[in-house]
Amino acid sequence: EGLSNVNYIWTQHPAFSGTFSLLRVPGKWRASLYPAPGETIEQALEPDAIQRKLQAIHPKPGDYDVPDLRPYRIHQRIVETYRVGRLLLAGDAAHLNSPSGGMG
Description:
Blueprint: E1 7-12, E2 17-22, E3 29-33, H1 41-44, H2 47-57, E4 76-78, E5 83-84, E6 87-88, E7 95-97
Antiparallel strand pairs: 1-2, 2-3, 4-7, 5-6
């Protein structure tokens, strides 16, 4: 009950943005990093690009251990009309939004 036991941090960097989630697994974080402006998905998934972003946010000696990569595309849709006759759509029934690639 109550709020989630996961801490979320939003990062806005001059070159890119993303989110970090402190999981309930000791020493593990989940990072959702968006491609930098002009960077393709393929380029963003290169190990050097990932390390560069992580080091820009929190510099440390050596590379970060990145055990898993799961690229995804955020998509959103909304109904064209909220009401047809006696039928009314509201809240989550009226839109689709993938929260953090379905990992939210």
